[in-house]
Amino acid sequence: MQQPSNKKKDYSPYIRKVTWIGFGVNVLLTCIKFVAGILGQSQALVADAVHSLSDTVTDLAVILGSFFWSEPPDQCHPYGHQRIETMVTLAIGAILFMTGAGIGWQAITTMRGESVPPSPTVFALAAAMLSLVTKEILFQWTDRAGKKVRSTALSANAWHHRLDAISSIPVLLALAGAMLFPNLTFLDSAGALIVSVFIIQAAFKIMLPGFSELLGRGAPEDTLAAINDLVMTHPEVIEIHQLRTRYLGSNLYIDFHLVLNRQLTVQQGHDIAERIKTHILSTTSEVADIVIRIEPGDLS
Fold first, then answer.
1. The CATH homologous superfamily of the domain defined by 221-297
2. Banded model confidence at residue 6, pLDDT cuts 50, 70, 90
3. How confident is the model at residue 10 (pLDDT cuts 50, 70, 90)?
4. Would you kindly state where each structural domain of the chain is located, as residue ranges?
5. What span, in angstroms and rounded, lies between the C-alpha atoms of 131 and 115?
6. Which of 28, 76, 120, 242 has minimal CB crowding within 10 Å?
7. Strand 287-297 and strand 237-248: pairing?
8. pTM over 0.70
9. What are the tens digits of pLDDT across the range 121-147?
């Protein structure tokens, strides 16, 4: 039986570099928005600062996780440790969900209160605009990095940055509305509530693929069809069946049965299987390893 190999390039140092930069930006933005929210009398901006603080937690989760999921296979984990990346992705989603629920509850409590919250100032508005621009730039850069190295955790963290940028939009609108119409100070709390909805929605989008992978999610139909067509381009192949795939982190593992002419020698069958394996690995970048079982068949 062919054992899974682990010859793929280790991108964990690059992932940590990208995430450390994001961490620094998030810490700076958290401080700016929190101070601006307090001095500018904006509950929505303070809520947004808490969201940015949750970004720093997920940054640290990616950095620490990358030290473990990049470890090579061992006797106890023959397929490697890529599932740790999935667990980090789920942790990011869980942190987002709890953050969103807390912000939403605080906003609802404030809106139901009898006291009238103070009107926000232009200081808070400027901080929200700075957050919007900075986090969108950070998202674009981190998302490209995640796609480059096919890291689900890095991509999830990128969308955390994008969500922070999107959440600044209702904050801006709420701040502007509360400043233009001082009697409508509830708009600030409403903006915080809208932010919480965005956060919870993103949390589910991040967690659902992770749960699917833990349940043994395989490749989509178009990928299976592409693999089948690629194998059948080899003239020695009679049939391919029992094609199965599964994801471990961002890596795809494949196994299938290959039907060859029963008149071929064991060496000839082995060489054909190796050529097909090399062909697939060189064609499909997400494939980490392939196990092929050869079966005898008759040419029609």
1. Cation efflux protein, cytoplasmic domain (3.30.70.1350)
2. very low
3. low
4. 12-214, 221-297
5. 29
6. 76
7. unpaired
8. no
9. 677 778 888 888 888 888 889 888 888
